[in-house]
């Protein structure tokens, strides 16, 4: 397949727009699951199209790289990229969404306390848990114990407990 500017440049602009918008949506925590999937997977398409664009525009790019500004920008972005992707020290900082720690803490509380927080009686919570397949739940058990410390299951179970039936 021959690379042509007539489709490479508009494709690069379009994929850049899509990646930018989905990235901004994720940054402000209002993106959709589809947006996140598109952002992650079409990011690879952005890389491929950008490589094609660079290959088509290699001579003008070389000209820009001869200037101090061009060298400084490329060097700066290379350094930032390396710092962003090379692990150093504690890589877990900031790796979880901010709601995870409170969810873990809530999942570690006795079911009786979770019931109080949900403004439900313990028997109402027992009924909700029974509907989800958890029978013989005791007041001092925790959601984490019920789900064998599976965070995703714990979050789903807490969601069911806190969901008010209209």
Automatic annotation (TrEMBL):
Q: Keywords, A to Z?
A: Membrane, Transmembrane, Transmembrane helix
Q: Which domain of life is it from?
A: Bacteria
Membrane-spanning ranges: 7-29, 41-58, 70-89
What name appears for this protein in its UniProt entry? DUF4405 domain-containing protein
Q: What is the originating organism of this protein? A: Maribrevibacterium harenarium
The beginning of the lineage is: Bacteria, Pseudomonadati, Pseudomonadota, Gammaproteobacteria, Oceanospirillales
């Amino acid at each position: 397949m021959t690379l042509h500017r007539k489709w490479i440049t508009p494709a690069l602009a379009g994929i850049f727009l899509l990646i930018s918008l989905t990235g901004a949506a994720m940054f402000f925590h209002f993106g959709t699951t589809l947006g996140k999937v598109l952002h992650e997977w079409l990011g690879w398409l952005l890389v491929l199209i950008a490589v094609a664009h660079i290959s088509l525009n290699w001579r003008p790019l070389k000209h820009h790289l001869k200037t101090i500004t061009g060298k400084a920008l490329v060097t700066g972005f290379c350094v930032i990229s390396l710092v962003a992707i090379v692990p150093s020290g504690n890589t877990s900082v900031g790796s979880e969404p901010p709601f995870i720690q409170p969810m873990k803490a809530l999942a570690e509380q006795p079911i009786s306390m979770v019931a109080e927080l949900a403004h439900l009686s313990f028997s109402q919570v027992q009924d909700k848990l029974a509907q989800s397949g958890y029978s013989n739940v005791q007041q001092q058990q925790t959601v984490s114990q019920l789900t064998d410390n599976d965070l995703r299951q714990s979050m789903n179970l807490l969601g069911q407990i806190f969901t008010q039936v209209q």
